[in-house]
Structure formats: structure tokens, C-alpha cells
Amino acid sequence: MKLLKNLTSVALIALVAMGCQEEDQVFGAIKTPTNLEVSATITGADAENPYGDGSGEVTFTASATDALSYKFVLGTFEKVAPSGSYTHIFSTLGVNTYDVVVLAYGAGGTTTSSVITIDVRADYTPPADFLQKLLGDTGTRTWRIKAEGPGHFGLGPVNDWPFAYYSAAPGDKAATGMYDDRYIFSEDGTFTHITNSVNDDNGTDTSGTVFGRDPYIMNDLGPTSEVPNGADIENYPLDDYSESWSVIAPGGTKTFVFSGLAFIGYYTGGNHQYVIMEDPDNPMPSNEFRIKTTDANSEFDWGFIIIADE
């Protein structure tokens, strides 16, 4: 069930200076991590399916002597994992090769790095009724946050009910850049985020604002002169943009995956994947989805209800 490709620590990249080997009154002995070992377990991989079961799910495990924390770098996405374990879902269809950079952090910011190369298969095809709901009859459907409904936005514990800590009342975030956003899914895999649908009434105006969490939105999208309200950037200036979307189903749970920095509702960083919360005992209407995503620090799960804009 495991496909392991281990590379011992090598100087393949130099992202951070190695630091010096001297005593520090705060950290004690500054030691650069050594003996970095990294393994990858591809879900469902065996002799007949060396690239996995098609879910694209891979668990990385890193260990090193004198390491305090680890970071996994996958293209533009980075994940800090103090335990040295991280599970990622690759969504590009087919068998693809990925280089994953792993950094082990020691006292005083010293680092050791390694690269692991893996081949992973992703081949999930959403059922026809799901695609009909998402794309409608024309192959393109526009969605928005259901601002008029209770619980259209909220947060809760990671891997738990995402509205446990906070659940927005109707219209609760009207002062932010959330409610005038539109999200267009097209059958060719294009995802278009209109950041202000109102200013397009008399023609196309690509300017707009969005709602996001500080510091994630500024870390990823750049600084802004907007003053945070607590941990929120309520109206971060952002033009319309297009990325791509796909659907995966690790463990049978349908999940939206967006390329780049695309997001829905409230920018939280993270892996830009949104789990679709389906409940057979309480199905969502044919024009609504309930979704959730985990933020960049794995601090909260953030939930949203989106409704077709028709």
C-alpha cells in the first residue's frame, strides 16, 4: 500500500541561510537539523496501481535530528507541519510527476532541505447529476454567497462542523466585499471570480473588492492600505480573475479544487480546496451547495452556502 521514495538531506535549494554554530542565550545551542528523511505514501498504491487509487491523495512524512518543525513546498503552496506529517491531494488529471521540497527547521532558524519526487494518479469523474447541478443546462452557471439565508458564512473547529463557533445571520456581512461577488463555473474547467457584479450593470468593469482574513490575504495577494477590522480585511481591492476548477473525491467526499489563489466567499489561504458537505438525511436544494475549507494555519474550518444566481 505504500510507494516510498526517500531522499536524504541534500543541498538542492538554499532558501534560508544555515546559521552559525554558536551558543545563544535564548535558544541555547543553535544546531542545524541533520539526517533529514522524507517518505511519501500514496493512497491506494500497490503492485497493480503504483500511482495510487486515483484519489490523488498523498501523505508525506519527514523526520530529522534536531528539527523543531517542517515545511512542505508544492509549487506556490506551502504548508508548515510541526509534526512532520502532511496529507495533500493532487488534482491534475492523469499520472503526473511532482517535486516536493521539504525543509526541516532547527533552533535559531537554521534549515536543512530535501526534495522528493513522486508520480501520482488522479482520475475522479463527478457523477452526471452533480455536474448538472453545478453547470446547469448551458454548461456555465453563476453562483453567489446566500447572503439572505442564516448560516451562509461561519467558522468552527478543523475537521468538524464549520459553523460551530460562528454562524452569520442574514445580511450580517453587508459592509464587506463578499455579497456582490459572483463565481462562474464552466464545463471547460474555467472558474471566473467577478469581484463586483454590481459595477457590471452598465458594461464590464473588472475592479472590485473582496473579503479576507489578515494576514493570509495580504501574505498571498500583496499589501493594501485597507485597515483591518480585527482579523478581517473587509474590502480588499481585487480585479476579476479566472483560474481553473476540478472536483476530486478523497474517501468518497466530493471536493472543489481551485488553481492559483482562487477562492470563494472569504479568503483564508490554505490549499484552496473546498469540501462539499453532503448529508443524505438533509440534502441541499438543487440550486445550493454547502462547502467548507481549512485556513492556512489549520486554525479553523470556514463554511459557506452558495446559491445559483438566477
Describe the secondary structure blueprint for this structure.
Elements: E1 23-24, E2 28-29, E3 34-42, E4 57-65, E5 69-74, E6 77-80, E7 85-89, E8 94-105, E9 111-122, H1 128-135, E10 140-145, E11 153-156, E12 166-167, E13 182-186, E14 190-194, E15 209-213, H2 216-221, E16 232-237, E17 241-248, E18 255-258, E19 273-276, E20 288-294, E21 301-308
Antiparallel strand pairs: 1-2, 3-4, 4-7, 5-6, 5-8, 8-9, 10-13, 10-21, 11-12, 11-21, 13-14, 14-17, 15-16, 17-18, 18-19, 19-20, 20-21
What does this 3D model show about the protein?
This protein has 2 domains: 23-122, Immunoglobulins (Immunoglobulin-like, Sandwich), CATH 2.60.40; 128-308, no CATH class. Helix content is 5%, strand content 40%. It is built from 2 helices and 21 strands. The chain has helices at 128-135, 216-221, and strands spanning 23-24, 28-29, 34-42, 57-65, 69-74, 77-80, 85-89, 94-105, 111-122, 140-145, 153-156, 166-167, 182-186, 190-194, 209-213, 232-237, 241-248, 255-258, 273-276, 288-294, 301-308. The protein has an 8-stranded antiparallel β-barrel with strand order 10-13-14-17-18-19-20-21. Strand 20 (288-294) and strand 21 form a beta hairpin. Residues 1-27 have low confidence and may be disordered.
